[in-house]
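fwd from M.: "can u put these together and see what the complex looks like"

so here's what she sent:
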Amino acid sequence: MTLNQAIETLNRVEKAVYALNHAMDIMNTDGETVAPKDSWRVRGEAMAYLSGLAYQELQAPETEEALKTILQHRGETDETTFRRAEVLQEDYEDMHVLPMDEYVAYNQLVSDAGAVWREAKENNDYASFAPLLEKLIAARRRYAALKAPEKPAYDVLLDQYEKGACMETLDPFFAAVRQDLAPVIADVAAHPKETPAFLTREFSVDAQRHFSEKLMALEGLNPRRCTLGETEHPFTSGPNKWDVRITTNYRSDVLGSLYSVVHEGGHALYEMGVADELQCTCLGGGATMGIHESQSRFYENLIGRSRAFCVPLLKIMKESFPEQMAGVTEDALYEAINLSQPSLIRTEADELTYSLHVMIRYELEKAMIAGDLTVAELPAAWNDMYQKYLGVTVPDDRRGVLQDSHWSFGGMGYFPSYALGSAYGVQMLHRMEKEIDVWGSVEKGDLSPLTAWLGEHIHRFGKLKKPQELLSAAMGGPLDPSVYTSYLKEKFTKLYHL
Amino acid sequence: MTLNQAIETLNRVEKAVYALNHAMDIMNTDGETVAPKDSWRVRGEAMAYLSGLAYQELQAPETEEALKTILQHRGETDETTFRRAEVLQEDYEDMHVLPMDEYVAYNQLVSDAGAVWREAKENNDYASFAPLLEKLIAARRRYAALKAPEKPAYDVLLDQYEKGACMETLDPFFAAVRQDLAPVIADVAAHPKETPAFLTREFSVDAQRHFSEKLMALEGLNPRRCTLGETEHPFTSGPNKWDVRITTNYRSDVLGSLYSVVHEGGHALYEMGVADELQCTCLGGGATMGIHESQSRFYENLIGRSRAFCVPLLKIMKESFPEQMAGVTEDALYEAINLSQPSLIRTEADELTYSLHVMIRYELEKAMIAGDLTVAELPAAWNDMYQKYLGVTVPDDRRGVLQDSHWSFGGMGYFPSYALGSAYGVQMLHRMEKEIDVWGSVEKGDLSPLTAWLGEHIHRFGKLKKPQELLSAAMGGPLDPSVYTSYLKEKFTKLYHL
């Protein structure tokens, strides 16, 4: 096969895989948002069929040969083509681990499990989800054992979401976070604040829906390219930069949805910022989930929970909720959105205690994937850890082990991305502060200079650069958890006058 | 190829085509409801790629041989398998008309045109849609010429939506309708009623959304299997009976959305009523579009605009809109939902003048497909016909030639299905009235006996029976337009005391 023939094959296979992935992406998003509940009875099988077609394209001997040919000719193709072959080769190897039948069956399992999990959570019925969770864990363990039998299974899974992440580096990372933050968390707990009255008022779902539009405009999300849906567990998806979907979930508590929108909006800005020429190629999405979460948590916390952001935020909150927000000042809002207290739900946790929620999941996943914790034992283990690390009693599985969607899609190994992303973001912010007037812009309600900075350093590259290279360039050095914990210590020491 | 091998091939091909159609169905519905506007830049190409995969499956020599084998062995397979082969053979022949490249390009054109049409309508910009409409007409003419060069092109297209429909029978059908109804319409116009005050009140979109849920419950639509979306032009879709989507469009006028929901709900009940064992086969949908419209317009008009329906309808309207509906009686509501006056918008037209809207489109399509009317001339021709037949002046293309989505998806030949369906429905109702207590059930707000009757006579069969056979059995005889026009004459003579 000549290099030109190889590139032609790459183009053809990539186009086929893109179209199939596009379809599966939309079917999945639809299934998690607007589809009728019973639709899962067929959707999983239809999606699995499409996944089989993608398998056939990518695992064809011709594809294998084309990728090999291009990778042997480094320097003879442009950088983008070479990198496309590199990334597609990784996808090829990931997929190659399982025979097609098993790969297709796994895709159906994941699709079905999502639907079963949603109903299980709604009905607080862990038992109905447990058999699927068992199959998912078995499938992930099997995948890991086949992919890299020499490594601990959980390391293989971690690497899927954050290239290079492994227990050897994550154990000390979480230890450092826990050690640095434990005294602050204890100190804060000793100085509890009352929940301000406005947070206990009723915010109607209809009014929140209208407010979300304003919030998305404030974040700079182009509504022609990004729409907002409703789901049980918020996520961001979309096959390309012109077709991005964020989701939220409305409760009577206004802050829950507010920060879901801002968080998912950060993911969306990343997707929408990838260069046009990378769209619909295998380089067209975010580099890793850790880097993706660095963007979402940047907007959610570093910006969204900053004092400066309270200026434009209060303005639109008063427009949308004039009665509920009457008399609330920027300072009061700033205190309210940074109330810190150990709580049950990860996505609603404050910045300070958040990493403990992630750490708990990390420890549980480690044990499950190592085979040290069974599905039957999991809820009790979950509840014990919430008692131990956060001091809260889990009242039911809905607000406990069933709260997150990740395990239902086989995402064991995903959670550490949130903690890593939070830490990456602080180091990016420190660099950004030196180069642009971050807080002046935020106060004016103009986030575009921030998004432009992130676009320049992260977004536009998609998967073109290798993750570690991209990350160190954007952070100006390697990950240093003490930068993250110092940021939190300083913020909460001030907020709580410690 | 043995019969058993042929049946195996049929099963395999049908499964593949089903999965691809499922994906395209969801992508299309998503594109017309919640997808961001710019998403059309890629969606059309991705969908077209999937359509090419379906083409390859269905046009494979092995498929051709399998279908031929089964069709040669009538009596040696069960009825369902034989009919599946028959219907798949029709699909095969339809698709076979065009080479794959052209088939794929047409699918992309249809997808893109839908997005362009939506924006053109929104911006009242016919010029932006015209080039796509030209391509669509050319493509449809070419398809017809290749499919059956011996027939008039428009007849070939009519047959796609209503098996056997042709100008030779539709010309006299529309002539009879026009002749019978023209004096009634003139008489009604001479006795105009004032619009009742409650119809001029503001019905907020949020309140209408909540109302729609009650309306769907009243119609008996299982929310686990059917959900409601919002779109520019209401439609019903869904790949199987557990996954049906209806759509509506909220304006400040409450009746517009109300009757969209009831109409689309009729389509949905049909889809949800097809027998389980036909699901995900090529027999799993409605028999023809004319029969489909007979179900939607049955619920919309024969039931939804009946005096009996005003009893449960007023009840839920008063719950949802207590202020706007204060003091409104059942009789006043009955008069209001049957106000007859020539108007601009087909989907909002009253029952009496509705067929004239369809007739206008029928005449325009005939001329366009025959090559007697250009895309440039179309808007003026549209406006002239509205002046001539309905006596209304079209103020802009948004409320004129751009109002319907059908031409944007290449649906030239679809419109007559609405008029035929309306006529079929009356004949079904007359049979139903003899067998069950239709109006007693409707007054009680229980439509389930009606849906069960239609389920028994129409829904459950899907495409299992041939359309004409299904229809005459359900109507108890052949189509007789005078039954339809008599029903309308009687209803409006009473309503307007003529």
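replying to her w this: Chain A touches chain B at residues 15-16, 18-20, 22-24, 26-27, 29-30, 33-39, 41-43, 45-47, 49-50, 53, 206, 223-227, 229, 239-240, 242-245, 279-280 (CB under 8 Å).
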